[in-house]
Amino acid sequence: MMLRRKRRPRTWSSTTSATGWGESTFAELAWDRSRGASLRWAVAGLLLGGAAALVAFAPAAWLARAVASATAEHVLLADARGTLWNGSAVAVLTGGADSRDASALPGRLEWTLGPSGLGLELGLRHACCLNGTVAVRLTPGLGRLSATLPPRDGWLGQWPSAWLAGLGTPWNTMQLGGTLRLVSPGLSFETVQGRARLGGRADVEMIGVSSRLTTLETLGSYRLSISGDETGASQLQLSTQEGALQLSGDGTWGPGGLRFRGEARAAGPADEPALTNLLNIIGRRSGARSVISIG
User: Fold this and answer.
1) Which residues pair with 292 in a beta bridge?
2) End-to-end CA distance of the chain
């Protein structure tokens, strides 16, 4: 019987040790890993830097597009310059998409936007129409955004009534004169998942209103009050302060849209002939009065 020798398993330790192959291979692998990690960090840094630069230098046109979208293109920030955080534009009212009616305010509306507490503060300045700097606090949240106008003494802004002609019919036909003035003891506006809610109160004072549709020098002065309630709807009330044209009415603005019922009439028989054309345009004639119905 022949005896077979058992072969001992070969070991490569001496060869590896002698040639240095293991050390060089491990070094190359470590270098590759290190180089890959460095590349990843470089790409991440580049992306973060680019994102930061994009936010820091976000163009003012972004805000202009947001305002146009939110107002169905009835309010435009034309010729927007600067950045989202510090810019200016021309404020324009239009009749909406594809409308040829447009009316711009003189000068430029300027804004600044910066962090404030847990939100942002928007500062607005307009030499023609705002009373100093008007500050608006913006607080974003999950599916919501709130804008708060802190209480302040005096009026917030005033605009020429003729600016409303940019909205189209019937404003462009009436060709109003006079001044619109905004007064508020504090106001908040909040959108939650697309639903809007108003809090506080604001008064729009229409002072020395006139129209080219009448021979009267002035029609009068009026006040439209807007106040929020707990149901989420806003209450509207229109009243006459003085004048030949008497306006009155009330309504609501909420999730179901705008609903308003009111009337217009001459203060006395002597004013009726001069107000006939205007009363025919304001609403549906019912005898000596014009019935206003919206929604």
Assistant:
1) 262
2) 114
Q: Does residue 257 carry a pLDDT above 90?
A: no
Mean pLDDT of 145-162: 91
Sign of CA dihedral 244, 204, 192, 232: negative
pTM for this predicted structure: 0.78
CA–CA separation, 253 and 260 (whole Å): 8
Closest CA to 202 of 162, 234, 168, 166: 234
Q: Which H, E and C letters describe the chain, residue by residue?
A: CCCCCCCCCCCCHHHHHHHCHHHHHHHHHHHHHHHHHHHHHHHHHHHHHHHHHHHHCCEHHHHHHHHHHHCCCCEEEEEEEEECCEEEEEEEEECCCCCCCEEECCCCEEEEEEEECCEEEEEEECCCCECCCEEEEEEEECCEEEEEECCCCCCCEEEEHHHHHHHCCCHHHHCEEEEEEEEEEEEEEEEECCEEEEEEEEEEEEEEEEECCCCCCCCEEEEEEEEECCCCCEEEEEEEEECCEEEEEEEEEECCEEEEEEEEEECCHHHHHHHHHHHHHHCEEECCEEEEEEC
If you average pLDDT over residues 257-270, what whole number do you get? 94
Ramachandran region of residue 87, left (φ > 0), alpha (ψ -120 to 50) or beta?
beta
Q: Rounded to 5 degrees, what are φ and ψ at 266?
A: -75, 145
Asked if the model's pLDDT at residue 8 lies above 90, the reply is: no
Confidence of residue 22 (pLDDT cuts 50, 70, 90): low
